[in-house]
Known about the structure:
Distance between the termini of chain A: 16 Å
Number of domains of chain B: 4
Strand order of the largest sheet of chain B: 2-1-3-4-5
Mean pLDDT of chain A: 94
Oligomer: heterodimer
Structural class of chain A: alpha+beta
CATH superfamily of the largest domain in chain A: Glutaredoxin
Largest sheet of chain A: 4 strands, mixed
Number of helices of chain A: 7
CATH topology of the largest domain in chain B: Rossmann fold
Number of domains of chain A: 2
CATH architecture of the largest domain in chain A: 3-Layer(aba) Sandwich
Helix content of chain A: 40-55%
Structural class of chain B: alpha/beta
Amino acid sequence: xxxxxxxxxxxxxxxIERWRTTPGAALPMLHDxxxxxxxxxxxxxxxxxEALNISKAxxxxxxxxxxxxxxxxxxxxxLKLCRAESCQAMGCEGLVAHLKAQHGVAPDxxxxxxxxxxxxxxxxxxxxxxxxxxxxGEPIGRLDRVRLDAIVASAKDCAx
Amino acid sequence: xxxxxxPADSSALSVGADTVAAALTAEARRRGIDxxxxxxxxxxxxxxxxxxxxxxxxxRMGYGPIAPQDAASLLDAGFxxxxxxxxxxxxxxxxxxxxxxxxxxxxxxGVTDPQSLEDYRRHGGLxxxxxxxxLSPDAIVDEIVASGLRGRGGAGFPTGIKWGAVRNxxxxxxxxxxxxxxxxxxxxxxxxxxxxxxxxxxEGMAIxxxxxxxxxxYVYIRSEYPHAFDVFSRAVERARAAGLLGGQVLGxxxxxxxxxxxxxxxxxCGEETSMLESLEGKRGLVRAKxxxxxxxxxxxKPTVINNMLSLASVPWILEHGAKAYAEYGVxxxxxxxxxxxxxxxxxGGLVELxxxxxxxxxxxxxxxxxxxxxxxxxxxxxxxxxxxxxQKLLDTPLEYESMTRMKGMLGHGGIVVxxxxxxxxxxxxxxxxxxxxxxxxxCTPCRLGSTRGVETVDKIMSGDERQKNIELLRDLxxxxxxxxxxxxxGLTPLPVLSALDxxxxxxxxxxxxxxxx
Lengths: 160, 517
């Protein structure tokens, strides 16, 4: 997902304010912030901490615990590729090897200029149609090399 | 107006259900046909998706798998009234994969419009809650105890006993938490329900709330299910608008409302105490027990925390009675279990049956063997913490006690098939690596043991003091089983030891293996 906009403290405060009275609001608050800006900016941490009445270290601790929360902006498409057992049984590791060999893209590693970020996930609940992936939130079943090549190509077009 | 049913379930969408719906709409408009497209959940026959249905003279008629370019030929064939077509499947209820099931929980999934409370009611919904509203809380708890319902998340603890403990706890506030953090590979039943029959989950939670005296509930849904989260959240809003949730549940004196919460990519948050921490806005660190969540759970208050499939079984039990439910199943595994067949299998999908079928009946009888056409070599039952079963143990019955006897577990009912290209040493290594990645880090056996496990498998595979390291691996598994705080570290040895015990030939360094062949 592309970063929606540069970080802006006023807008961040507005997002955070929505959750101030909700008990245990850290996760929905952080999801909302990430939805607004595409990532959780360092400057948001004191604001989150103040709203939740926790220390900045605790706020950072929560953010860093959950794989979903990104600390830096990323422009381009996100392919969440399932690498759990059901998809292993249907050859997802072959797809990973293909991505690396053909396109120089490795999961969870930066791929400059690819316009695509491939993230490892473990299970998308589409196990009867493995290998499975989510492309910017849209489900893909029976993923194969042809489809992967098309995704990489379309991401590159967007990036350039 | 002619109706066409097209699933909007994530799996169906993943193979093009939206484009099929759009193509049918466009083609019908071109021909001046008035068409109503109803978006349903999935029947769970995923190799047939997108599976499109119409109203025939004698029930719903199925066509699948449908591609957008089939729209014209389907209309030519008169499929709106069940006409013949090369992709016609006949009456959907007669498709053997479906006809042989015992669908109690999934009876409506794929049939009804998941956003229509009227449709839900028309197909038998809310009868369980209506009966519960006329019962005392103790009578509801007794009914669940008598049904024999056990936790469908994997632990198999009697649901009624849990409810009784929360019922008897004194507190100003109590909670019902539904665990929809369905993280096990090979499972998708919760997702299907949220997308296909969300009011069933809401009804089950409302009954639980009545029984224990809770006014507030949470549903913790994993972020890998963005579509399910949206569908379920919309259903909650509709339930609130219709008075199923809110200050007066179905016009009664009981108040109950619930909030769907989105997880953030952490597998461990499916562990119940870690989930409570996450709901409180903290890192998902596992809590030591006691205190039990039933007495001191969410925000320190008595909390019922149940798997979604347990809660979804409750309306049927209240409607038909505990005795009728307990007539399904075997031994101490009563009622029905939604099994999920996945991995390298021809006919993957959801199979709800009374407890007790064998693994073979599922993977061969329903699944039709591997998709690759090669022989089945291993079947993992119960997710990433479940055991790998070899061919010779595929006649093990799928019920709690038999699985435990075979050093496995039923887990959430996921069954993943592997053909003969699988390398079980690699799967054992993955089990440790997965545990290392997902460990919350609170207890040492899991935090360190998982990484030592990866290293030890690597040593075995490189031929470094192989025998000694196999012994070390077994020792490590014992420490993790006995010393871990929760099921992640405690059950990671199940896949590892089953691989080692049943497939020792895979734990031989590659050059030696090649020489032996």
